[in-house]
Amino acid sequence: MFRDAPVGMLVVDVSTGTILAANGVLIRLAGQPGDRLVGRRAADLVHADDRSRHLAIVSRVASGLPADVVVEQRLVRTDGRVVWTRWSMAVAATRRDPVLVAHVQDVTAERRRAEALRWAATHDELTRLPNRAQLTAELTARLAARRPGTGVMFLDLDHFKVVNDSLGHAAGDRLLRVVTRRLCEVLGERDVLGRFGGDEFVALLSDHDGDRPARAVAERLRHAISRPVVVDGVELVVTASIGIAMAGRDDVAASDLLRDADAAMYRAKAAGRDRVEVFLPSVHRASVATLRTTNELRRGIERDELVPYFQPILDLPSGRLAGFEVLARWRHPERGLLGAEQFVPTAEEAGIIGDVDAAILRASVAQLGRWRSGVPAFHDLTIAVNVSSRQLLDPRFVDVVRRTLAAAEVPSDALWLELTETTLMADVTTTSNALRRLREAGVHIAVDDFGTGYSSLSYLKRFPVEAIKVDRSFVGGLGVDDEDTTIVDAVIRLGHSLGLHVVSEGVETDDQLGRLQAMGCDRAQGFLFGRPRPAEIVEADWALV
């Protein structure tokens, strides 16, 4: 049984540690004849790095302590090759002294498979770099050890999606390998580079005191990446936006540092890309405030805290009330009444501006329906509601408008939708289709803040626009600034030559009103006629006029 066992077997003298017998499998595993094994110490077969543990086990057995153990250790063959083996050892009683019986199994292939699985769990297959989980674990260890100059550099390639979309993902993968090689060439031996996912890389820094040395490294990385590279015969110049966060206190966590570096990287993106930004605590506080406002805004939409305020629009030839422009307000339960400038940018950044616009549209159209049916003086009035590009590009928007008008029993020609020039040009094809469908439904279209956005006037012919609104920045200079006066006059003439109505914003003085009437402007709005007010006050002020 000993001789023909399918695993390697050794019998070892407990007192001396010498080999008394070895079977055929063990002899082949050790790579030397059996007669050379017998009489040698079993410890001599074991790798030097594992030998002390092996001797400790033998010593424990010799002292009479329980020794039924299973241990993995490396066995060194005569030819120098190292084999990973699993030793199952137990004490056996004999007529003489007890002996140690060891079953020795080759587990090299098993170890390799396990190592491959461990590597795959902690590394990125494409770039061979540590992955997100491994980087986080390494950063946690560095912070716990309080290594000086520890920091994080978050790097994101600019417009990498364009490469994938135009040349294909295989070309994108080759580019990522080139970038990996360039980054590794710049970073120091104590720095660790990893791939966080997609086209995002993270470098863990050590021995970089303060912001300037880390920034210098980041600038070198940025320049290294931007060198031209040829992929599939196409020369590419790729840039990167980099954010840096340094561990400035002892209690900082890995997740905090990664978050801060990511925030700094997005600042670099917002500032124009291809640049380096260092995290500032004030940025974090602003981000926390933005997150809080976003969450409160979502709840505010659900609780109908967003309300329309109405500013009068007058028909200048007759001097009569023509309608109202709708402006969004937020009745915040703690902060009071908030103007659009205090929450609309947050809504746009958070991607919920469409929800905000939809809430205001529903509320204002519903109010117009109540006015037209219950207030005789308001029966023929219209409202003008601002529309964001996100809302206009939503394929469901036209149907939402139709349902909103139907629910309030408001005719479609009582609704004006106002869009900025930039909104019109965000996606020409989709915008054109949406506006055409809105016009077919009977809704009117106006261009807001005319003259401050897109430089070309071709869109006035391309889109079914019916009115343009002269921006308040020009109206404010009427009679004071010759250039502003000329611009307002030219815009009115241009609008009329194209068959468009012209509405002037920001009218605050009688002189401005008189000049606009003399120029033939169709409609006007501004503080001269009334500030934006809630529905009940507007009704009280204008119902009997």
Descriptive report:
It is a single chain. This protein has 545 residues and is an alpha/beta fold. The protein is built from 21 helices and 21 strands. The strands form four sheets. The chain has an eight-stranded mixed barrel, surrounded by four helices. A five-stranded antiparallel β-sheet has the order 2-1-5-4-3, sandwiched between helices. The protein has a five-stranded mixed β-sheet with strand order 7-8-6-11-12, sandwiched between helices. β9 and β10 form a beta hairpin.
Structure summarized in a few sentences:
The protein is 44% helix and 23% strand. It is of the alpha/beta class and 545 residues long. The radius of gyration is 38 Å and the shape is elongated.
Topology overview:
Layout: E1 8-13, E2 19-22, H1 24-30, H2 34-37, H3 48-62, E3 69-76, E4 82-92, E5 99-106, H4 108-122, H5 132-144, E6 151-157, H6 160-167, H7 169-186, E7 192-197, E8 200-205, H8 211-225, E9 229-231, E10 234-236, E11 240-246, H9 254-270, E12 276-278, H10 281-302, E13 306-315, E14 320-332, E15 336-338, H11 344-350, H12 353-374, E16 382-386, H13 389-393, H14 397-408, E17 415-420, H15 421-424, H16 428-440, E18 444-450, H17 459-462, E19 467-470, H18 472-475, H19 482-497, E20 501-504, H20 510-519, E21 523-525, H21 535-542
Helix pairs in contact: 6-7, 7-8, 12-14
Key features of this structure:
Beta-Lactamase; 21 strands; 21 helices; 8-stranded mixed β-barrel; alpha/beta; Alpha-Beta Plaits; 545 residues; TIM Barrel; elongated; 5-stranded antiparallel beta sheet
